[in-house]
Design brief:
With about 190 residues, the chain is an alpha+beta fold. Helix content is about 20%, strand content about 30%. It has a domain of about 130 residues: tt1808, chain A (Alpha-Beta Complex).
Length: about 190
């Protein structure tokens, strides 16, 4: 893909034409290229995905690791979708939102693992997008600090104050009350 033009708004239709060997996201029509994840990033993602996958076996919810396309705008026309993300981990409990291209609409839960270049987007822009889209639970993982901030969608459709966990903690997942994620193995390699 040639460099994006700042005056142009991009859509999911554009996204589908870009090189599939490159990772892109579109936020409000602005494309953002995603850097290749670091080894630590991958290890954290793998451990979290494994714990969720083990728990979800035989259940209706599904867990997906990046790259996995989420179209936050629920539109019929690909030209109208201007918010396309590839979260590090996505959990979808409504199978009607899944199609051959990923998730069409708000997933149940999203986990983003910060990298040196993704902090602003993950903590600000995507945070607001996920809140507005109705993502029930949003985790921001900070590998350098060995911390996870957990945001839970409240009855007023906004994220409350985060619960913050460190490497010695276990997180009880709000959308699965009988699931605890053990953070010790998540941060063992960090």
């Amino acid at each position: 893909m040639p460099l994006p033009k700042p005056e142009k708004k991009y859509s999911y239709s554009d996204y589908l034409t870009w090189d599939e060997n490159e990772r892109w996201e579109i936020l409000d029509g602005v494309p953002y290229m995603q850097a290749a994840p670091s080894r630590i990033h991958q290890e954290i993602s793998m451990e979290l995905s494994t714990q969720f996958h083990t728990y979800l076996k035989g259940k209706t919810c599904r867990v997906f690791a990046a790259p996995f396309c989420v179209r936050l705008d629920v539109e019929k026309n690909d030209n109208d979708v201007t918010n396309v993300v590839e979260p590090d981990i996505t959990i979808v409990c409504n199978s009607s939102k899944l199609d051959e291209r990923g998730c069409n609409g708000s997933p149940t839960m999203i986990i983003e693992i910060l990298s040196p270049t993704s902090g602003k987007n993950d903590k600000l822009i995507k945070f607001n997008k996920y809140e507005k889209a109705g993502v029930k639970e949003y985790w921001i993982v900070e590998p350098d600090q060995k911390l996870i901030s957990v945001f839970i969608l409240q009855e007023n459709n906004s994220y409350g104050r985060p619960e913050i966990y460190s490497e010695e903690d276990k997180i009880r997942v709000s959308i699965f009350p009988d699931l605890e994620i053990d953070l010790k193995p998540v941060f063992d390699m960090v």
